[in-house]
Amino acid sequence: MPPSRVDVVVSDAGPLIALGRLDKLALLHALFHQVQVPDAVLAECLARPEQADTQRVLAALRAGWMQRCAAVPLAGPPELHLGERAAIGRALEIGAGLLADDLAARTFARAHGVAVIGTLGVLAMAKQRGLIDRLAPLIEQLRAGGQRLSHAAVADALAIAGEKPA
After folding, report:
1. Which residue among 10, 23, 133, 139 has the highest number of C-beta atoms inside a 10 angstrom radius?
2. What are the pLDDT digits (tens) for 63-83?
3. In terms of pTM, does the model score above 0.85?
4. How far apart are CA 76 and CA 90, in angstroms?
5. How many CB atoms are located within 10 Å of the residue 20 CB?
6. What pLDDT does residue 3 have?
């Protein structure tokens, strides 16, 4: 379940790539006052310049509503990547929420008191605020694109969005 109100978020790569693939990256601009992305995360997002999601991340940076930031990666468990550790470290440093989908990153961040929102949480918030019409088709697009989503996470997101599971 997404936190009740978070104005500033630091993003890991997963939500940026997923929302970029859905062409819903601009939802972040509508939902949050500020979106910061550590350099290590951007390197991951921009690794495949031919992809549409990469072009959308670049467009968001050019538009200025998504901001590149320096971040010192936290020491953490070995299963966390550099970008995840950098995003968690930055969120802790500035008291922001974290956008992340990776379970280990989410668990580690929450253990350090960071509010965490995943791609499904962003989409559910967008539905609640009338920014998208339906969540279920977007979930199907994510799954069709290879995104692994637990049944529990999908059920929670659909419940938040006021939609019934298929």
Report:
1. 10
2. 999 999 999 888 888 899 999
3. yes
4. 14
5. 22
6. 52
- Pairing type for strands 34-38 and 8-11 reads parallel
Q: How far is CA 131 from the centre of its chain?
A: 16
Q: Which positions of the chain have pLDDT values less than 50?
A: 1
| Phi-psi sector, 51: left (phi>0), alpha (psi -120 to 50), beta | beta
Cβ atoms of 47 and 75 closer than 8 Å:
no
Cβ-in-10-Å burial (0-12, 13-18, 19+) of 50 comes to exposed
Starting at the edge strand that comes first in sequence, how are the strands of the sheet with 34-38 ordered? 66-69, 34-38, 8-11, 97-99, 116-117
- Count of CB atoms within 10 A of residue 144's CB? 8
Q: 33: closest CA among 70, 2, 68, 67?
A: 67
Closest CA to 68 of 55, 81, 86: 86
In the block, which residue shows the tokens 């990666």? 73
Contact between residue 25 and residue 57 where contact means Cβ atoms under 8 Å apart: yes
Structure token pair of residue 85: 């550790």
Per-residue tokens: 155: 């059920």
